[in-house]
Amino acid sequence: MTFPWPDGYRAAASFTFDVDAESCVLAHDPSAASRMSLMSHQAYGPRVGVPRLLRVLRRQGVRATFFVPGFTADTYPDMVRAIVDDGHEVAHHGYLHEQTRGMDARTEARAIDRGLAALERLGIRPTGYRAPWWEMNWHTPRLLIERGFRYDSSLLDDDVPYRLREEQGKPGATLVEIPVHWGLDDWEQYAFYPGWTGSGVIESPRKACGMWREEAAAYHAEGGCYVLTSHPFLSGRPARSAALEGLIEAVRGMAGMWVTTLAEIAEHTERVVNEVRTVRRIDAPELSEDGERRLVG
Ligand SMILES: [Zn+2]
């Protein structure tokens, strides 16, 4: 794996924040709106987590990417303005953090357009997209390309960015993919709410950030693209954001590590990567008469 990072850099790292707030809960179950305590757990993100994380990023001199669902933008416009005022990137994350699994293209297009309209009301035209729950459908790249998105960050099939063409896509129409994975997401470490999410095990920030630091060191050694996904309602808590600041400081200190936004990584990828992958759906082979699955042809 040798990715052509800009001169002087050997690897890249991006700190990304998904500001789901209430949207992911309401998309999962609209009746959750009646649960005052659960809703307050989600509201902690925009109310307390984001301001604290913005202070961390300011102290570290790091620009980050914030994925903001349209519903969050409509509910907390001043918080989104504070993110923009600090020089961070705001990108698209659905409207109500929709469950896109199995969703048809027309319904998904409506959700994307609604999210775009909400961000546009705040003067933001995002270049990046992250599917709610990282749940892309095979038609999603086409919807993104049609709407002028430059990159997506929801797939899990590489350690470095690449350019993809949707299967039926016209030549020339491509999207940069900046891959993610569940080991670099704070949900699995910290999220717990009875009757909503999590197993009840809440990891210590030292353990979580130690694991993420180990990954960062390996991405750095291999010249990869390290993308950490955090949620302000989880990682914005005091000890967690303190540990995250230690991690950011350590990653910044890695020689030749380019710490930047996903938009900048995508722009660089468009410039230096000529190879374009066609991403194809792989289906199960047909069943033979004896019930064994065999490859056909
Ligand atoms: Zn999310």
Automatic annotation (TrEMBL):
Residues 35-260 form the NodB homology domain. InterPro entries: Glyco_hydro/deAcase_b/a-brl, NODB_dom, PgdA-like. Gene3D superfamilies: Glycoside hydrolase/deacetylase. Pfam families: Polysacc_deac_1. PANTHER family: POLYSACCHARIDE DEACETYLASE FAMILY PROTEIN (AFU_ORTHOLOGUE AFUA_6G05030) (PTHR47561). This is Polysaccharide deacetylase. It comes from Streptomyces ochraceiscleroticus. The lineage of its organism: Bacteria, Bacillati, Actinomycetota, Actinomycetes, Kitasatosporales.
